[in-house]
Amino acid sequence: MSEQGKVALFGASGVIGQSVVQALRAQGREYRVVGRSMSSLKREFGSDPKAELVTWNPEDPASVRAAARGVHTLIYLVGLPYTEFRMHPVLTRRTLEGAIAEGVKRLVQIGTLYSFGRPQAERVTEDHPREPHTFKGKMRKQQEDLLLEAGASGAIQTTILRLPDFYGPNVERSFLHGAFRAALDGKRAQLIGPIDRPHEFVFVPDVGPVVTALMDEPRAYGRTWNLGGAGVTTQREMAERIFAEVGRRPKLMVANRPMLRMLGLFDSFLRELFEMHYLLTEPLIVDDSALRNLLGEVKKTPYAEGIRLSLAAMREQDAAARRSPAPASPAHTPA
């Protein structure tokens, strides 16, 4: 246990949670991981003696309280499929109530840019109006409001770190994943356009150290923070870099807005993604100078290095898969 007290990650199984765990391990700190499935927690964290594995049922207030018991700082990373975004404020309220009841001192939420709505400035600071025009943005704003109101009440200290799109090793839910996979397989990358508008991407392994530094900084609480990428780029530039890294000429197939709508008739994820298409047509580039002024140095892996590291991890994963054939049974149960 650190001198700051027990740290618990609610929703640690995602890629951002894994990055935070790596940062905690590097600091030699004990931590609790909270998830629905003990078998999944054991598979992902069971080999680490510093990890405490705890299951929870967010539908059960007693279970939420038990998961938060003895915790000083709670990092909230609970993700939901687009089709279940209505539950974001609900789960956040339940977690806040349980955390406050158990005397948790601090709560850090890892959020998105959805609550801003359409950008009204070339660079979006934390003071940018929050005027979401999408259902998903409105759910994220409600979630943020709950956290900020709880912090203002004095019942618990809260802060929110907002992230743009991200990429990195083992990150499949990324606009760039298809380009990585296609470059390695010698196929055509399927991207969602337009791909020439300004964009930024955060390299996932960079996030963990920022989160741990933020949660330990008393001045971080009572407001929100932005974390930007390693610079302004475009999807096309990133895809070309990815293909160049493997020594292949880029082969791209771009789905425009009408095509995305049509594909959404057959794919629920793409159907829900259509609502957020404005993030590709109306560049939302964040200003994270406030975060850098607070924490000092904030490491941002250059895109060229992040691409190289991501490809290396995918090659290693592919090699491991070839060494360990999949089970004969075709049965599959969604997580």
UniProtKB/TrEMBL annotation:
Q: Which domain of life is it from?
A: Bacteria
Q: Which Pfam families match?
A: Epimerase
Kindly give the Gene3D superfamilies that the UniProt entry links to this protein. NAD(P)-binding Rossmann-like Domain
Q: Which organism is it from?
A: Archangium minus
UniProt lists compositionally biased (Basic and acidic residues) regions at: 120-134
Q: Where is this region: Disordered?
A: 120-139
Per its record, how is this protein called by name?
Answer: NAD-dependent epimerase/dehydratase family protein
NAD-dependent epimerase/dehydratase domain spans which residues?
9-228
Positions of transmembrane segments: none
